[in-house]
Amino acid sequence: MTVSSPSTMATDTCIAVQNVSISYGSQEAVRGVYMDIPRGKVTAFIGPSGCGKSTVLRALNRMNDLIEGCSLKGRVLFDGHDLYAKNVDPVEVRRRIGMVFQKPNPFPKTIYENIAFGARINGFRGDMDELVERSLRKSALWDEAKDKLNESGYALSGGQQQRLCIARAIAIEPEVILMDEPCSALDPISTLKIEEMMHELKKSYTIVIVTHNMQQAVRVSDVTGFFNVSHRAEGDRKVGCLVEFADTEQIFNSPSQQATQDYVSGRFG
Amino acid sequence: MTSFPRGALTYRPGLARNRCNQLFTGLAAVFTALAVLPLVLVLVYVLIKGGSLISLRLLSELPPAPGLEGGGIGNALVGTLIVTLIASLIAIPVGVGSGVYLAEYSRGGAFARFVRFGTNVLAGVPSIICGVFIYGLIVATRAFAGQSYSALAGGIALAVLMVPTVIKTTDEALKLVANELRWGALGVGASKFVTITRITLPAALAPIATGIVLAIARAAGETAPLIFTALFSPFWPDGLLNPIASMSVLIYNFAIMPYEAQISLAWAASFVLVVMILAANLLARWLGKLSRT
Description:
The complex is a heterodimer. Chain A is about 35% helix and about 25% strand. Chain A is an alpha/beta fold. Chain A has a single domain, classed as P-loop containing nucleotide triphosphate hydrolases (Rossmann fold), CATH 3.40.50. Chain A has a 6-stranded mixed β-sheet, sandwiched between helices. Chain A starts with 12 loop residues before the first strand and ends in a 5-residue tail after the last helix. In chain B, α3 (about 75-105) crosses α11 and α9 (about 205-220) runs antiparallel to α12 (about 260-290). The interface of A and B includes residues 61 and 100 of A.
């Protein structure tokens, strides 16, 4: 496994993953991941199902803490701080590194309250109306939602709900936004809207996205990590690993690994 | 060609399988009717016997002394409300708190499994045993300010009955809340406490409220735990540390008295109690419906 250093990397590393292995109980899910996620760029994780993309993504803001029996070896450095150090508060980590999930999960509250909730519990002391509007504008939902801010978040369509969840994540002004297959439950038009929005967002945020859609990775990301399942482990156990991490252009046009070449060109078992 | 006999496509009622179908459909209907019959009979019988006595006087006056006419069940009505209120004030925080612990904090360890099992056992304990238990613990030992029988002891006995129901419904309701919702809250930097109080509990409020109302309805109608604890009083309630009247004990006491006035008051009280419990059940149904809209 070689990890070539993307050219963008030289700029500035936001999150550094160093020799990370994650296990669920005694079963290792992903092993030996190294990567440097660049600041202010969109980084995509691609790969077949079960190769540990989502697991690694959740490790970046300690969401794995919530899964029973999940343990991590190695180091995850955010701005040089080890996120898994003993004195780190996972709540504070999640305030700096926000997350958008695969299934839209608005709170059973009004659209306005969905956004205000996060801000309020984070001790926001500004103009709440202004923050709600700004967040909805950034997530390209303002025009559709401005007349029904007091309606339930569930009154929106699936694509709108997902943009509401993104607005909710943006509202607390995180430094990084993690997205776990944010478009897998959406139609192509909603997907397009979210992709356009991501181009806007990367001006102010670092974005990491897991996607099964390779065209999407090409369209939105600057850097891509290709994960694969390997059988290196003893017996028949499958373990995920990071095969290649490089500029998106390189991954899709001239990957250094045969497995990457096979996967991105669709010749994959 | 087929190796099965083929008949016409028309429906023939005389066929063995069709006869069987009709027989068992009829049988199921009869048993269903038998199951509902007690409910209908109780309602009708209580309405006939007690409904005619309903008046403002019944609800606002004290019961008459033995041998006298008239009077009402005012003190028992107030007493039932007070005792049930005490029980709710104890059982709701304890029950909801335990349910939250089981569903949100425990990681399915030995202690949580023990509490879940214990809750199921406690839910099946006969109510009279709850009464005897509180009698032995509080009444016989004069634990509260040297008083023996008291409204407080009655409330605690009913609370013991209510707690398992409240724990179970809270636990189940919280388990039904989608995990994505919890992740969403934690993902915007909410602490566990904020997630539970502001997101998870409100999302499960309707089923929890339904369970609480059903537990209250059950407790309000209990007699056995009150006989040993709250006893009875022919007077208006006098503080929480004195014996207090209640509807169910009034019915128990008056129905077997040899006086006409008391017996008819017992019927009237039965009617009022049935209506109160029916109303509580309707409220629970309505609360349950709220969650689905």
